[in-house]
């Protein structure tokens, strides 16, 4: 969505930046005239506009759309997976499965998925421009006065540049571990710096600029609230578990050695551990999350109830659903709960995330209803059936069993390995071009749906986690309850005491709750890594998947402990939803209507008005799919009745059994739950050559 796609004076920064090789050296931004950039607030704002555009391109294509997020962040967890066969996409699948417990790291080609001009170069481009802007600020005669007087527009812009640099380093650490660090223009980014030092440096700088910033800005720019949230994010990560190579000296910002608490055993000369002083980072996270709540109330809105009015018999009643619907309502609209979104404009540019991680469509690249949506991220069937509570209103927003055929009709997504709506199984559902106020049907990847990079619910759960880890259980429970009660509609339905007991602790429950809240958004993998729960959750989903497949093999169905049953076959037929319920695009399934084959599961169907965009239904308007047997085993008598009513059998669990290797064997392939997880990416040959360092974690060096 537009929100002002950045064009004014982008040439000031971006036009001066040369090729990838130079970004790795970070010399290029020294060509900028610092006096010009900081000569007036207007010039600074234009320079920052160029920097935001550089970030937006990298964010949507590498950080939060395609790139490494596409290859491992989104699919590589207990919740999510890839849709295509392992053999078809080895460059993505090996990193997703932790390089077969690290055993495959030495065979993985350095350019198997990453390219030289990729996320690493893109993030250092952002750092180079950020350095140029911040150094120009720091050379001003009135620099120190920014920190002693009232807030000014100049101070706000300086804070934004510092926050941009910290954001880039955060993404680099998450993907590569230890990386080069500098904040000076004209200095090459060579040699590896331990991530502990980088975290501390970024956190120190963010705390210094945070008071300069305004809590209220346009949501496509960094605010004081964003910086509070970024401090919380990075502090939790700095104090969390990570896999560290063993050949680097580990020191803090004072140059003192850092000590660690290790989990499991070493793997390829790397250990999985957290700092022994992790509590001080969790305390920092708690402080800044709380500061945002106390001082910046109103900069984002957490809706406990759905503000929409029911229409034409369609029931909404799902405030969680409302957040995603707001993002699809048109250009110049931000979701109330967002702290920061990177902006996209409909019909212009390459909108990677909804195409790659929206609801899949078999439509063509042009003039389709909707156009092709690849659907790279999918949901593990055992998680959908066995872990997601059927009463949780987030389930049907996060996961769909149907996609679009591209001709205005709904279709079942089978479990055969494939992409689009033709296979791959349970798909993400949070972004669906059927739901846009004015869908773009001319071409694919032009939806114009923004990227929600930070929102209030993440801050609530981050705060709850920090409180629980530090023993403030009362405060942690308040914020866990706020998230769960919204998701279930009431405290009685949320059954949070039982949920905590099942997870083993309040802290573990908060981490699991985060999985439900952000399912399919790329948060889960690194959250499990940093909390030390990766081995626990991977073992659980493997064992649950094994039980499901064995049950399907033996009985033709399997019933999970939560009461859901998956069967070899389900039964479907197309119906005219306009005649049946009065609309095609369904919302929340009304309470008590869970047996309705059109309305349950909810939040699916098709756009109500594809005809006005050029779609024709020459062979009838049976656009919606009625589904029977999705969550229970059907009797012979029930099947006979369904067949007489025009339903047809569709392979469902039977395909999971037929492709057992894809759903079980390659799910964290050979991971032993003990060795340090190799979740990071190798540096490419050019990065190694320019940087003057080598790969760790068992990776090749050429």
Tell me about this structure.
This protein starts with 9 loop residues before the first helix and ends in an 11-residue tail after the last helix. It has 702 residues and is mainly alpha-helical. The chain has 28 helices and 16 strands. Among the domains are: 10-63 and 97-276, Serine Threonine Protein Phosphatase 5, Tetratricopeptide repeat, CATH 1.25.40; 345-454, no CATH class. α17 runs antiparallel to α18 (473-488). The chain has a three-stranded antiparallel sheet, with no helix packed on it. A three-stranded antiparallel sheet has the order 15-14-16. A hairpin with a 2-residue loop joins β3 (260-267) and β4.
Any descriptors?
702 residues, Serine Threonine Protein Phosphatase 5, Tetratricopeptide repeat, three-stranded antiparallel beta sheet, 28 helices
